[in-house]
Amino acid sequence: MASRTQSRPVGTVTRGTTNPNRLRRMDRWIAAAHGRQLRRAADAVAVDLGYGAAPWTAVELLQRLRTVAPHARVVGIEIEPARVAAAKPYEREGLHFRHGGFEVPLPVRPVLIRAANVLRQYDEEQVAAVWERLCARLAPADAASGFSGGLLVEGTCDEIGRRHVWVALDTSGPRTVTFATRLASLDRPSDLAERLPKALIHRNVPGEPVHAFLRDFDRAWAAAAPYASYGARQRWIRAVRDIAADWPVLDGVSRWRQGEVTVGWEALAPRASQ
């Protein structure tokens, strides 16, 4: 039987589009929200899955994780062999590149898998199986060290990282949805709808929770218009405070100030198909 590292990679080749700093919002959220867990992990291996035609996102992920977990290591995994070969010159201590796909061909189970702009080309019906496969590769919890288990962060952003929405999952499934934006470029919160991950983007229609959330967010944003005189940041904070009365907002002002808001997955999860 072929070994994990010898088997054919699972998945299809992406367009490979990438830019420096494209994933900064996701990276900074990971470092802030899960830095403590990364420090507690015995072997803090993170995977940049489907990093694309250039290795910038993997290089940046290592830099940002090491601000909170100095022993972190990053492995960039790509299904296109030529992209792996092109990335090899960028390898250094703590940073390596491997050929592979959703099977995550590593001898260890990573504490983090980041899959950004990977699932947009897949059908919505395929997402759950990919999530399950990736979560099965995450490092398990370790009660002795206080490590609560690995994390999968999967989402989508625009070409220069101004707007980004991602889902965070653990071995039990999806836990949260985070909306992040450059506030100066935002007309209304529902502008982020075009960057919803594949599991949600086709559910932004009346009758679905994510549509109701964005509708309420737009209303709160409009009601917070007087705060715009103090800047877009203050307007965003006021709007998030308002929606927190009706939606399970899980973070606080320190993250809202960054143009973020994180909501419990169960509140936005798609309704079962009829």
Automatic annotation (TrEMBL):
Keyword Transferase recorded: yes
Signal peptide (residue range): none
Region (Disordered): 1-20
UniProt keyword annotations, A-Z: Methyltransferase, Transferase
InterPro entries hit by this protein: SAM-dependent_MTases_sf
GO MF annotation terms: methyltransferase activity
Protein name: Class I SAM-dependent methyltransferase
Coiled-coil positions: none
Protein's GO biological process: methylation
Superkingdom of source: Bacteria
